[in-house]
Amino acid sequence: MPLENPFQDPLRFERRVPECAMVIFGANGDLTKRKLLPALYRLAYERRLDAGFAVLGISRTRLSDDQFRDKMCASVKQFLEDSPFDADVWTAFAQGLFYMAGDIDDPGLFPALEGRLKEIEAARHTGGNVLFYLSTQPSQYIPIAQGLGAANVGKGQHGWRRIVIEKPFGHDLASARELSDKLHDAFEESEVYRIDHYLGKETVQNILALRFGNGIFEPLWNRRYVNHVQITAAESIGVEGRGAYYQEAGALRDMIQNHLSQVMATIAMEPSATFRPNSVRDERSKLLRSIRIMKPDEVLQNTVSGQYGPAHIGGEDVPGFRQEPGVKPDAQTDTYAAVTFFVDNWRWAGVPFYLRSGKRLPKRVTEIAIQFNAAPLAIFNGDEVNTAPNLLILRIQPEEGISLKFLSKRPGSGMNLRPVSMDFNYGSSFGERSPTAYETLLLDAIIGDATLYTRQDMVEASWTVVDAIQHVWDATKFEFPNYAAGSWGPKAADDMLARRGHVWRQP
Amino acid sequence: MGGTIAPDRILHEMADLWVSLGKQGEGQTGVLRACSMTLVVAAEESDDEQAIGETLAALMPEHPSRAIVIRFRAEDQRALAARVFAQCWMPFGHRQQICCEQIEVTASDASLPDLAAVVLPLKVPDLPVILWCRSPRLFHLEAFPLLSSIAQKVVLDSLAFGEPPAALRDIRAALARGTMLADFSWTRLTRWRELIAQIFENRAQLTNLARVSEIALTYSSPAPTASAFYMAAWLVDGFQKAGVQPRVTFASTPGPHDRQLNRIDLRAQGGEPIASVGLLEGQAAEIRIGELTSRAVLPPLTDYALMREELSIPGRDPVFERALAAAAGLALS
After folding, report:
1. Are A428 and B92 in contact (CB under 8 A)?
2. Which of A195, A208, A118 is nearest to A159 (CA)?
3. In chain A, what residues touch B62 (CB-CB under 8 Å)?
4. B289 with B275: CB under 8 angstroms?
5. In angstroms, what separates the C-alpha of A50 from chain B's closest C-alpha?
6. Interface residue B210 vs chain A (CB under 8 A)
7. Could you tell me the pTM of the whole model?
8. By CB distance 3.0 to 4.6 Å, which of A76, A118, B108, B191 could disulfide with B75?
């Protein structure tokens, strides 16, 4: 038997995709319907999956294979973004969809699962490769991992086994370690894929291309030229019916511990020696471990916790967080969090990284703004405009792209400068649809490329930083609400930057 | 038509064009100029001007370039004329305008030897030059190598060349002279080839590879097309790498698309089917592997899609070059 496929043409073909079956726990849930199945269908439409690719959905609801296929068909039609629905492609794809009703507390589920996987392998030639996707409540991660381990389903006799889990990866350092230990009973760390969909976004991946594919940026990427960095993840919506869940999480845990820390690590990490997954992840991990851990007396100076109150926006009354369904009237949950991080390494010593995330802010926007030092001498008139600093802005959503702001002479006789912007927009510049984050990340997991997935040491490093803040916040009684829905957050957040002579950008 | 073109005058006109675009953008955010290559299009005067313009406009966002469109007239008298204009689009919610420049040159066949001296100063410094030759007649003109020598890569379509064996022979000869080439007849096969490669990415199917004893290619034209020869050559090359020597058969049947490959069957001894890829109505393809059947949607093979793929490969393509040599050998044998 030949060891290598002799027909590959990497210059023209997309990445090579192995045969596999994917087991989705929580197959009747929202994530499966809204994100996973539309992404898998789209991959099939783009000819990116093996012909025998199969999905085995598991949930408590009793459904036949055909009923599951019908439900998923309706979901794909409803949630498919920027793509046509092709009935013939769906029909062929749906032949690989299977369903199994079961309760994860039932010890019989996992041996039965192994039996079903063997049947699917025989029918679909999936080669014993299985990707488990935990699209369930986080509280079910450990029971599922234990069930897979006890029935020895987590180890394939031939072929690989991998497990994908969604955030939160614990709610603090101790619980993150416990989750990791339990996962490791059934899976090696290299088989655990912790998904962070922010890392699947084109612009976040493009940070690596921008920094390490170009020679001109890296010499400027340090404390000598960068004044400070702002990372913003703003949402215009509130908790949208997830109040009960959200009041246990908060913005610091829900966004800064994972998404924004990972984005910060990608912006600030050292160049990786190779583009191999562990090499890139080693550098991200090193950076996260270099973030200075705040002492208790530093926390309130360098962080801001906020919660939105009611407001009247666009002719409509918008409730405050405490008025949202399922939220306690005296909830101390942070719907807004802003922190000032410092990175204790030679490259970044003394450069503030401001991270903020909040709900009910004026608009939905996620961006990174790198502000460079102003020219050392203002030789042109010296007014505020003529000394405006250069900004490199990496927009992650809604429009993925990159902008560079610099000064240019205003036409005319005087030497007056004006800021101009050079914009690069992903959607329009490359004229074609970008894959969704889930398409990218699911394909990566099937291929076995963990570059964009979070490793346990990274999770622990970011929890170590966040726990130090959370402990002080837990012991503090905040005067909430402290910002109105539709504003850019509490005044204290502006004051935090003002203490260092900086102001938040208003994207 | 005037008798000469002064490249300096064209460059000056282009500079004026940018100033005028900039003035139109005054008070807004101005105009950005984007360029990643010089794209020279050599076409017949009778070629569809609007279709070429639309293809270039579609290519610009992904491959912004200075486009030089040369329209040839079969005429013995030397004649050249040129005009410049810009292609613009609004990528940022109509906030920012990006433009690429286009130069249109009309020339007689007799002026072809003069054109290299015109194009050379007009190409954008430090960036590659790609020549898209849309007419086999131009490719066969004696002076064509003078023009093609400026380009890093010449893109052709052997489907327009007439007899496939002769076309493949001529293209192979051009390649042997050192011209880096692309042929749309090969580009049209990428999605087919990817489907075949994907079949053998599966380890169970990889074990079946050694059992393949026949490659049957079906196409919708009276004789095998250049694409059919390319596909046969590429498949045979792949099987030979795995130590397998299947025989190749060609067959002609009516298919959903004119002059295209319709179907590929890989069979074991005795005709047992191992895998097949067949074109269906519309843009769909059906892949059969044993009892498994899947469907794929193949993107439409427009000039834009083919050119877009070729522009993304600025360097040599060793798989194509190997297939070209073998396809020409197969067609001429």
Report:
1. yes
2. A118
3. 429-432
4. yes
5. 7
6. yes
7. 0.83
8. B108
